[in-house]
Amino acid sequence: MLIVNNDDFGMYHAINAAVIHSIEEGIASSCSLMVLSPWARHAMHLLRERPEVPFGIHLTLVCDTTHFRWEPLSEKAAVPSLLDDETGTLFAPAGIPQLLAGARLNEIELEFRAQIDAVVAAGLAPSHLDWHCLADGGRDDILDLTVALAGEYGFAVRAWGEAGRHKLRQRGLPVIDNDVLDSFNLDIEGKPARYAQLLRDLPAGLSEWAIHPGLGNEESQAIDPEGWLVRRTDYEFLTSPTARELLQQEGIVVTDYRAAQRAWVTQGR
Fold first, then answer.
1. Residue-wise pLDDT tens digits, 51-91
2. Residues 88-99: pLDDT tens digits?
3. Cα 10 from Cα 76, distance rounded (Å)
4. Percent helix, percent strand, percent coil in the chain, to nearest 5
5. H helices of 140-257, where?
6. How far apart are CA 162 and CA 247, in angstroms?
7. Long-range contacts at 262-265 (CB < 8 A, ≥ 24 apart)
8. Residues forming beta bridges with residue 56, ordered by sequence position
9. What is the H or E stretch that residue 22 is in?
10. Which residue from 129, 130, 177 is spatially nearest to 153, judged by alpha carbons?
11. What DSSP state is assigned to residue 137?
12. 171-206: per-residue pLDDT in tens?
């Protein structure tokens, strides 16, 4: 079984279009919404029009676009430890060590709740919580906070690392069985063949791919000069006839986090 989750939904228009198309016409099964990113409102509109599309909330404390700096949904004065002193905005990926060293948990909770509440207030029903650029939240206490919030709101948590998955299994909570594939870790050259081989070699149990589709058009190249080609090649494979044929040939069932959500809610009771 395989979860194919499209990350970064809401970052910009070309990602939004590719995410939806690769779910409706390709092999992707779900997506994760970045609530504070520039095109989040458009992404939420697309989700309201498509209540059948499963999605989670991509909890965001890091901004990885250089031309558009993101700000928290919370009042800045309430979350100073989440802000880069030089820009007054969220930290860039290079600042993640500084963020994790100084971020106060009460301020993280305030911002996470703001992002979750914005989605709930929009009338949408997420299946899970996960994190942008911070595997398993980046700190044990952030993981624990997210699990507590998931229990409160009725979501699952998408855990990646072995330590995080082990911790959640000990609590009786369902997680994936195998290591997550992050598409940003794959070489651009030969990517279609690599994806095809990964499907042929998919291990038993539940696996997950974190994929980052984008159209790769002029907008993408201007906003995302370091990532657009990763996203375009992901999109091309997800929507290719080869991908769908391989799922059938290998007997792979593509699923999403809704079944895990039901188990998390039941366990939480």
1. 999 999 999 999 988 777 899 999 999 999 999 999 999 99
2. 999 999 999 999
3. 21
4. 50, 15, 35
5. 140-153, 162-170, 191-200, 218-223, 228-238, 241-250
6. 26
7. 263/156, 263/173, 263/174, 264/150, 264/151, 264/154, 264/155, 264/156, 264/157, 264/173, 264/174, 265/154
8. 32, 128
9. helix 13-24
10. 129
11. G
12. 999 999 999 999 999 999 999 999 999 999 999 999
Phi then psi for residue 80, to 5 deg, are -65, -30
As a whole number of Å, the CA-based R_g of the chain is 18
Distance of CA 76 to the CA centre of its chain: 24
Look at residue 125 and tell me whether its pLDDT is greater than 70. yes
Residue 269 reports pLDDT greater than 60: no
Spell out the domains of the chain, with CATH numbers in brackets.
2-268 (3.20.20.370)
Sign of the CA dihedral with 86 first, then 92, 96, and 97 last: negative
DSSP string, 231-269: HHHHHHHHTSHHHHHHHHHHTPPEE-SHHHHHHHHHHH-
The structure tokens listed for 260 are: 């895990």
The residue count of the chain comes to 269
Residue 129: exposed, middle, or buried by beta-carbon count in 10 A (0-12, 13-18, 19+)?
A: buried
Evaluate whether 53 touches 27 at the Cβ level (below 8 Å). no
What global pTM score does this model have? 0.96
Of residues 123, 118, 133, 116, the one with CA closest to residue 56:
116
